[in-house]
Amino acid sequence: MAKIYYDSDADLNVLKGKTIVFFGFGNQGAAQAQNLRDSGIPNEKIIIANREDNYAVDAKSKGFTVWHDFAKAAEVADVIFLLIPDQVQPRVFNAITSKLKDTAAIVVASGYNVFFKLLNFRPTQDVTMVAPRMIGSSVRSLYEKGKGFPCFVSVEQDGTGNGLAVALALSRAIGATKTGAIASSVREETAMDLFAEQGLWPNIIMLFREAYSVLKEAGCSDEALVYEMWMSKEPAEIFEAAAEEGFIKQLKHHSSVSQYGQLNGALKLDGTAIRAHFKEILYNQVLNGKFQKEFTAIEDALELQGDANPLNQLYKKSEESELGQGEKRVRARLGLS
């Protein structure tokens, strides 16, 4: 079983006098920087490194010092939170890595670039992961309510011998150890994250798409289908209940017909084929680096406009499905498009 760290395991004094630099002030950066400050880290010891954009304006409006020169910020950093998008981290970080102190602690919230060895560290530096399993707005709002949130923590390189103490102090400062930060690794975080994105959710999208087509063929209207399947927000309520009460136990809120149909139907399904498919995704696409190489090859194209952007191509193709077209008609009719 994984070790869980609580407030009592973390000493905020470890951060005393340290200059903490955030690369990026987006969803997570904004939340974590504010939580650190509210936990007693002096405002003057927090620097936001961000290009001149709306995020920088937001950081300034919240009272933070903002530097647009990433290399200059790197020079003064004792701790650096790398919270810019995964696809730009290697380009930005590797350009300034020579400026970092030999004893700097680098903190990531996603294991991707560390696991695939796309970032250049010196052996004397600490490389840690502090990864909230919650969107930034919730990291902030839960902290303000005095509540914790799920978070993964790990030390991937303990260059100073103090990596775990720093990682736990940072976890406590952002509010993660109030309910318990879970010992993990960049391998575990990356495996689960990419597997969900490439194995679990694609199959869920496919199931909804094919179910829509079968029911449409049986005479159901677009309007009835989109509301029955997702626009009523029933799936969201089910997942919320699953998080609060348990994945299986939440079924008790459903009718007896629903409970029997779901439980009996799920137990009758043979998971052999999907299990094999999931293993193929995990071992021969995610963990072996195949997807990483494929994604790296198209990274620059993600900045392009129109059909030259591969993401736009995928959206266009997906929206051509019967489900996509049906929803488009319903939303247009309701004035929601």
From TrEMBL:
Q: Name one GO molecular function term.
A: ketol-acid reductoisomerase activity
Copy the pathway line from the protein's UniProt record. Amino-acid biosynthesis; L-valine biosynthesis; L-valine from pyruvate: step 2/4; Amino-acid biosynthesis; L-isoleucine biosynthesis; L-isoleucine from 2-oxobutanoate: step 2/4
Q: Where is the KARI N-terminal Rossmann domain?
A: 2-184
Q: Which SUPFAM superfamilies match?
A: 6-phosphogluconate dehydrogenase C-terminal domain-like, NAD(P)-binding Rossmann-fold domains
PROSITE patterns linked: KARI_N
Q: Which InterPro entries match?
A: 6-PGluconate_DH-like_C_sf (IPR008927), KARI (IPR013023), KARI_C (IPR000506), KARI_N (IPR013116), NAD(P)-bd_dom_sf (IPR036291)
> Which family, according to the similarity comment?
Belongs to the ketol-acid reductoisomerase family.
The protein, known as: Acetohydroxy-acid reductoisomerase
